[in-house]
Amino acid sequence: MVVKVNNLVKRYKELVALDHMNLEVEEGEIFGLLGPNGSGKTTAINCILALLEYDKGSIEVFGKEMNPNTYESKKQIGVVMQNVAVFEELTVYENIDYFCGLYIYDKEERRQCVKDAIAFVGLEDYVKFLPKKLSGGLLRRLNIACGIAHKPKLIILDEPTVAVDPQSRNSILEGIQKLNKNGATIIYTSHYMEEVEQICTRIAIIDKGKNLALGTKEELKSMIKTAETIQLEILDFPEALLPGVRELPHVFKASYDGKKLTLHCSKGKHNLIRVLDYMKANEVSVGRVYTELPTLNDVFLEITGKELRD
Amino acid sequence: MFGHLYKYRLLGLVRRKELIFWALIFPVILGTLFKAGFGSSSSIAEEFSTIPVALTIEQEDTLSTTFIDTLEAASFNEDTPMFSITTVSNAEGSDLVKAGTVDGQIIYGDTISLVFSSSGLNQSIIKIFTDTFQQNSSVYMEVMTTDPSKLSEVMSVMSSDISYLQEVSLGGEKVDSMLQYFYALIAMACLYGSFLGLQNAEDIQANITALGARRHITPTHHMKLIVADLLAAFTVHFTNVLLVCAYLRFILKIQIGSQPVYFLLVCLLGSIIGVTLGLFIGSVSRRSPGLKVALSLGISMVFSMLGGLMFSQLKYIIEQKAPIVNRINPVALVSDAFFSLTVYDDYQRYASNLIILGSMALLLTVGSFFAIRRGRYASL
């Protein structure tokens, strides 16, 4: 077990930021903490890093109780903060070297680590640049390089793709997977379900400081009733047909918003064919048709009753 | 390891243009403006006004008459007599001194004794005057006994000797009356090290900056980071102050730094007090970074003003009315330490100033350490 969080409670006066949270992160996995802004993801990370005081519970990292003086554990942790945390007046190389030097004291070893980190994030052409001369995406890459240059066993990334363009985002996500393949255990927090779904092997869905669900994405999706969501673009759909749609096999929820008919189906085959047959039989013209398997947003919606992006 | 931390902190501070502006460029500009504004107005006589003294004659003789005549004849220049004399009894004189009506009481008896209620430049002048008279009194006595006709000639020579004291300090330096402004300017430059201290405080606290948080979670001991940052700030700022002094001395030709070792020691302690003041403000205040910069600038300016940067006499007025302010004002202490070297020739006073500065720096540093040493934060 790399990280074990047991019954963690953190209060800010009346506000309960973490409400008896439990987490267990296994070695070698990419563990996702998924939740909306303000759900307690960063608070949990800060507690794990022994930055924040907490009211109750315990945290173990690499089998040791985590506190500010657990230097042996800290040596093996790399952190990429949500906000870019680099020295504005040091160059790309100097920044990475500085932070790497807080973990690795041997000059030769450090030089190689810095070189590797620069290559890893693709900043070879920018080593002499000051951070202010870098674009948002490159700055994020520098932020990551500063956090991982010392080749830690546990890497914690707190929303590393916020305000990053899609191209840089993909590059960052690929990099994280590469770090994992190289042996690092990753804790990845995000409110972007697509990212978490794409890279995480196990996911904890949290809201209001509570761990609502935990498992692989398949396990999480199997926890909910929706197995398929079908959407049909229909102009002038006769409302009188709606009860008939709801009685189709596996359909447990149907709604029409004036342009689009949305059907939620439980497990079963050929749902789309049956729906289209029903429309044909009732002479309803259908425009575009969409069908999708449940997403983590559906999981979140069913568990909390609200959208992940609310 | 420590060298790594120190080197990069040094680099970081040196490259921060706004810090270097306040700590180096601004004092240089101000010094240049001072020099341009004051021009060649460097006669001390233009700066000083008549000194009120109480005179008590306990033993009347020929020499006492000469003493009174010399006292009355002494002047800073043609229009400004050196002393305004009130002849009183011993008790009355003492009351006048206590009330601050006069700057000192001269009691003429077997010997000449002095009574002061505070120390300052005027008191120093009174002391120099009486000391010189006593040194020369044997000459008077001899002239009076051997050739009384030459007494007026000798008195004239003696008066010119006393007049010469207007431009010569106890330390043997030729004193430029504008020097006090430049001393206050160096002291102000020292205090502007507070911006470096402030930066250090921000970059080390996890609840203030993301950078502080990132450094906090590393396996490097917190105290090691604080000390490396602090030493780097001391180095950068001491260099800043030395550059300011070099500019004043070699470019503007201001007569400073004649006792280099002692002079540099004041600069070093001044730099330390500046940095630690900023570190303290940044550590204990929970205000926004902008407000802390404003606070730091404001405190530095107020200390500089009270230390005589804008109006040189203010420091002496404070010395008379509320001397404790000058004992806790770093600008006044630094400036006074310089004066102790070049004007007062008073090493005890110099040492006393340095001890107070050192104690203040220690207090500020300890206070800051207590504020920023914590491991975990209640909120971020």
Q: How would you summarize the topology of this molecule?
A:
The complex is a heterodimer of chains A (310) and B (380).
Chain A: E1 3-12, E2 15-25, E3 30-34, H1 41-48, E4 56-61, E5 64-65, H2 71-75, E6 77-80, H3 92-101, H4 107-121, H5 136-148, E7 154-158, H6 166-181, E8 185-190, H7 193-199, E9 202-207, E10 210-215, H8 217-222, E11 228-233, H9 242-246, E12 251-256, E13 260-265, H10 271-281, E14 289-292, H11 296-304
Parallel strand pairs in A: 3-8, 3-9, 6-7, 7-8
Antiparallel strand pairs in A: 1-2, 1-4, 4-5, 9-10, 11-13, 11-14, 12-13
Helix pairs in contact in A: 3-4, 3-5, 4-5
Chain B: H1 2-14, H2 17-38, E1 51-57, H3 62-73, E2 83-87, H4 90-99, E3 104-108, E4 112-115, H5 121-146, H6 151-164, H7 179-191, H8 194-204, H9 210-216, H10 222-251, H11 260-284, H12 289-306, H13 312-321, H14 323-328, H15 330-344, H16 347-372
Parallel strand pairs in B: 1-2, 1-3
Antiparallel strand pairs in B: 3-4
Helix pairs in contact in B: 1-10, 2-7, 2-10, 5-6, 7-10, 7-11, 7-12, 7-15, 8-10, 8-11, 8-12, 10-11, 11-12, 11-15, 11-16, 15-16
The count of helical stretches of chain B stands at 16
Number of strands of chain B: 4
Q: Describe the strand arrangement of the main beta sheet of chain B, using strand numbers.
A: 2-1-3-4
Average pLDDT score of chain B: 84
Strand content of chain A: 25-35%
Structural descriptors:
heterodimer, A: 310 residues, alpha/beta, Rossmann fold, Alpha-Beta Plaits, 2 domains, six-stranded mixed β-sheet, four-stranded antiparallel β-sheet, 11 helices, 34% helix, elongated, B: 380 residues, mainly alpha, D-Maltodextrin-Binding Protein, domain 2, four-stranded mixed β-sheet, 16 helices
